[in-house]
Design goal:
Layout (H helix, E strand, L loop, with lengths): L5 H9 L8 E6 L4 H14 L4 E4 L11 E3 L2 E2 L2 H19 L8 H15 L4 E5 L16 E4 L7 H4 L3 H9 L7 E4 L4 H13 L3 E4 L5 E8 L2 E7 L4 E7 L4 H18 L10 H9 L8 E4 L3 E5 L4 H14 L4 E6 L7 H8 L5 E4 L10 H12 L4 E3 L3 H13 L9 E6 L2 H12 L1
Parallel strand pairs: 1-5, 1-6, 2-5, 6-7, 7-8, 13-17, 14-15, 14-17, 15-16
Antiparallel strand pairs: 2-3, 3-4, 9-10, 10-11, 12-13
Helix pairs in contact: 1-3, 2-8, 2-9, 3-4, 6-7, 10-11, 11-12
């Protein structure tokens, strides 16, 4: 996969290279990037640093992609930044046969907004892959790679090793790479790249990790092995072993960034607890309704869905669970259905508002292969699908309303559409 960053680099130069005015932590991976980025941001803010966070995709407003000190920029501020950057972008586009991409522009807006704020540190998530990604104009001293699995194979390659080559390219010479636990073929790629660019590799399960986790109201309590200390009784208001893993990765990244580590001591445990207690990740097993329980989860590939279903099994005691699913056409739907069938008693398939949404009948045919026709229902739109699912969940007279649930999942866009519905 090759995207040309020449135009974006020219634009940043015309803006005075705003990306060089602050330090950066750069994140890539297949699953967990946004949650980890938000935890990194929360920990940095707890330590008194002014942060800029750039993540994608957004759920409801493009302003969500650019946050200063944990808050999305306002629409007014977004327009101000755009009005400053767009004239220069237009001049540069005129000198090239192709214009900058949407993601090029939002990246430029974010980097400019951070410099203007100003901030101490940028927490930046890649859009796709890493090597040719628009965000790979940074010279980050700390880079993070969350678990790598198969996704976007048409762009990134057919094997996890191919995908790892794309993603590890964000690690510049002399940087430190914080890596989640990876398959061996991925680990080998990361190790070879770090040796080539003289980067330091810090690995989950070797240098840091989750020592213990226990369920708690609204999340979990963790004991984390950091690089410089063990951190006890860390409350994380997010569900799932995968979020505990993300927390360990985020902590190692922040320890490295702040100069803590082996032989250097750890961070203040109280500040670490304060940071994690502030962590949020909308659309990740997000509770939007009670009695019956309705959860929204943005899992959109088999690995993400497997993490979601494991968490539903471990942390929720549903007597009946109905899934509402809408996906994009290019996803491994069969892989997601295989995981979902193990926890959902029934499924309602529908479509979201994306032009790339898989047609309902096509999705239903795949669902029936795993659930059987008798457990699959069809709705032509998401509001109807959610209504059908709630009625289905409530129809089990042998289970109290507190013991039935609905999970809306399959895509970030599906969750975004559902969040709007539940706020009405």
């Amino acid at each position: 996969m090759v995207f040309d960053r020449t135009k974006l680099r020219e634009l940043l130069a015309a803006l005075g290279n705003p990306e060089r005015t602050y330090r950066a932590i750069h994140l890539t991976g297949t699953n967990g990037k946004t949650s980890t980025a938000r935890m990194v941001e929360a920990l940095l803010r707890a330590h008194g640093l002014r942060t800029g966070r750039y993540t994608s995709p957004h759920m409801e407003s493009v302003c969500e992609r650019i946050s200063i000190d944990g808050e999305p920029v306002t629409e007014e501020r977004f327009v101000e930044i755009y009005d400053e950057v767009a004239p220069l972008a237009k001049l540069i586009d005129a000198q090239h046969p192709e214009t900058m991409t949407y993601f090029d522009m939002t990246t430029a807006l974010a980097l400019a907004a951070f410099a203007d704020a100003p901030i101490d540190v940028a927490v930046v998530e890649v859009g796709l892959g890493g090597a040719s990604d628009s965000t790979n104009v940074l010279d980050a001293e700390v880079c993070v790679i969350t678990p790598i699995d198969l996704d976007h194979t048409e762009w990134l390659g057919d094997t996890v090793a191919d995908i790892a080559h794309e993603k590890v390219a964000i690690v510049p010479r002399g940087a430190t790479l914080i890596s989640a636990l990876q398959p061996e073929e991925v680990s080998e790629v990361l190790r070879e790249h770090c040796e080539e660019v003289n980067a330091t590799e810090v690995i989950e399960g070797v240098d840091f990790g989750v020592l213990q986790r226990g369920l708690a109201v609204g999340g979990q309590v963790l004991q984390l092995q950091g690089l410089g200390a063990i951190y006890d009784v860390v409350y994380l208001p997010l569900h799932g072993a995968h979020q505990a893993q993300n927390a360990a990765v985020a902590l190692a990244a922040v320890e490295t960034f702040l100069g803590a580590g082996k032989g250097k001591g750890g961070l203040d445990p109280e500040v670490v607890r304060e940071g994690f207690a502030m962590a949020t990740s909308p659309g990740r097993l997000e509770l939007v309704k009670s009695a019956p329980t309705v959860l929204l989860d943005a899992a959109h590939n088999p690995a993400g869905m497997a993490a979601t279903t494991r968490t539903l099994t471990e942390e929720f005691d549903f007597g009946r669970l109905v899934a509402v699913v809408a996906v994009l056409r290019d996803k491994d739907v069969a892989g997601m259905m295989a995981s979902l069938e193990s926890v959902a008693d029934a499924i309602v398939v529908t479509r979201n508002s994306s032009d790339r949404a898989m047609p309902v009948r096509e999705l239903a045919a795949i669902a029936e292969e795993y659930f059987g026709p008798e457990r699959v229902r069809i709705a032509q739109n998401l509001p109807d699908a959610i209504e059908i699912a709630i009625e289905d969940a409530e129809s089990d007279i042998d289970v109290s309303l507190g013991g039935v649930g609905v999970i809306v999942t399959g895509s970030v866009m599906t969750v975004a559409d559902a969040r709007k519905l539940f706020r009405r």
